[in-house]
């Protein structure tokens, strides 16, 4: 049956009316993947030399054993964001004498056809069969190779399981991302433990006790079985539909949003749109990952406070930038319905402001642990948080009135440039430059604190005059709404 399913998928691909466009996209993706593959091959070949340069006072095998779990942790983060779920239109098969195990088995096995499963083999195999084989023998080298394969399978099906569960309840994806972020912070920020030491604890023992390879094999097999059982139990569409409907609460059942009346209802609907669709949800997830952005700069003394202005704005406002740059394209599929509905566009804009305020406030709270680097860092974060609420939100919504490209919410986020145009390029300039236009004149004269005060004052002025800007944006939208709607109709 697997060959039959594969044959049907090929026929569906070639008979689709969008085959030409799909082939062009896949060709571009193929070239990009080959370029990445060449980098990974080069990195795998020279991995031993790189480890010697990075840790000249340590044995390279010890260092190698210590980085394996670190790699698979970040591999899981990347899979959750970029790896697509394998799909098969099961409706035509449900009324035929086709065993459910065959359908589920096809979906489960095709999940292995991912380039993420190829990277660790290419990256780690040269070191295993040159260093470990020579030092510890064939059995130890084989155990390492099988363990890496098994961990790759485990990551593959764990990411698949999380994403499938998230399709029914978007909060699961956020919880998984938060847990992985806390694991990284526990090591690299708070130093509660060392992932490298845990990695060496297992793989160092694997050198002398090859039978320990059974542990990753069991983990990989167990995760495959969990996915198989989950898919089999949710194969019927009516079961998926009923569970999905019960997983979401209406806006009136969200106490915080219920206080804002009709505007709260609009925000609740927007939150559902984000959590139920891949691409907008990826903007939210990436915002969580970029909360660790400060670790790149705050741990390096070479970066001054000027860079902290950018980092603070980026971490507390990444959702405003990544999600807001495609406003109102997220509603392109039902934009005509919004135009003819009773929704007051002023309320629509206020809902956008409220959504950005809630997410940016949560982001600022999550960045407060950076107080470890000093209270001044938190002060800068707070100033740039105000700047995001006042200035950047207004800029984003201004450029939204000039974005006429639609977005298909059913498509994934990885290698998807739909909706990207000149508007997004132009948007980046004021977002990045304006804070420094206010800050640098004071900085050049040695008055950095006055520069931060000026940023705060400008931000507060924009917040206090928000109704004025909403009226201006509404008038601007009314002059362009038919052009926006026409652009969204073009598929």
TrEMBL record:
Keyword Flavoprotein: no
Transmembrane helix as UniProt keyword: yes
Secretion signal, residue range per the UniProt entry: none
Name this polypeptide is given: Uncharacterized protein
Keywords, in A-Z order: Membrane, Transmembrane, Transmembrane helix
Entries under InterPro entries matching the protein: DUF5687 (IPR043742)
Pfam families, A to Z: DUF5687
Record-annotated membrane-spanning stretches: 23-49, 61-82, 103-129, 135-158, 170-191, 211-231, 282-298, 310-332, 353-372, 378-400, 420-438, 444-464
Organism: Mucilaginibacter pedocola
Superkingdom, taxonomy of origin: Bacteria
């Amino acid at each position: 049956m697997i060959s039959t399913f594969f044959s049907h998928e090929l026929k569906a691909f070639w008979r689709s009316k969008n085959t030409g466009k799909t082939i062009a996209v896949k060709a571009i993706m193929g070239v990009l993947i080959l370029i990445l593959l060449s980098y990974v091959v080069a990195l795998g070949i020279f991995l031993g030399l790189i480890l010697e340069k990075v840790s000249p006072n340590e044995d390279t095998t010890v260092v190698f054993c210590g980085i394996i779990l670190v790699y698979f942790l970040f591999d899981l983060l990347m899979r959750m964001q970029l790896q697509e779920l394998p799909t098969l239109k099961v409706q035509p098969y449900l009324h035929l004498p086709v065993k459910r195990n065959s359908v589920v088995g096809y979906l489960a096995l095709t999940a292995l056809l991912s380039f993420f499963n190829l990277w660790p083999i290419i990256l780690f195999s040269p070191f295993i069969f040159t260093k470990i084989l020579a030092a510890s023998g064939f059995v130890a080298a084989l155990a390492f190779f099988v363990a890496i394969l098994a961990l790759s399978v485990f990551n593959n099906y764990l990411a698949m399981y999380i994403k499938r569960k998230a399709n029914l309840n978007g909060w699961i994806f956020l919880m998984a991302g938060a847990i992985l972020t806390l694991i990284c912070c526990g090591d690299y920020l708070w130093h509660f433990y060392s992932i490298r030491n845990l990695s060496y604890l297992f793989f160092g023992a694997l050198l002398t006790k090859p039978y320990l390879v059974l542990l990753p094999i069991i983990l990989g097999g167990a995760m495959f079985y969990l996915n198989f059982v989950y898919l089999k139990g949710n194969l019927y569409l009516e079961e998926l539909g009923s569970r999905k409907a019960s997983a979401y609460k209406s806006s009136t059942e969200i106490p915080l949003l219920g206080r804002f009346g009709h505007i709260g209802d609009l925000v609740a609907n927007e939150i559902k749109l984000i959590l139920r669709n891949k691409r907008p949800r990826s903007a939210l997830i990436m915002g969580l990952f970029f909360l660790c952005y400060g670790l790149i700069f705050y741990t390096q003394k070479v970066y001054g406070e000027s860079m902290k202005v950018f980092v603070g704005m980026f971490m507390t406002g990444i959702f405003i930038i990544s999600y807001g740059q495609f406003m109102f394209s997220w509603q392109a599929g039902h934009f005509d319905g919004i135009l003819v509905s009773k929704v007051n566009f002023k309320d629509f804009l206020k809902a956008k402001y409220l959504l950005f305020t809630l997410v940016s406030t949560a982001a600022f709270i999550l960045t407060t642990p950076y107080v470890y680097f000093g209270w001044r860092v938190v002060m800068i974060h707070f100033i740039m948080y105000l700047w995001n609420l006042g200035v950047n939100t207004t800029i984003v919504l201004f450029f939204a009135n000039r974005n006429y490209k639609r977005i298909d919410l059913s498509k994934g986020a990885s290698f998807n440039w739909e909706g990207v145009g000149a508007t997004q390029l132009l948007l980046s300039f004021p977002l990045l430059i304006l804070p420094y236009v206010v800050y640098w004149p004071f900085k050049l004269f040695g008055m950095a604190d006055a520069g931060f005060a000026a940023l705060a004052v400008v931000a507060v002025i924009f917040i206090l005059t928000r109704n004025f800007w909403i009226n201006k944006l509404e008038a601007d939208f009314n002059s362009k709404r038919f052009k926006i709607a026409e652009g969204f109709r073009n598929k």
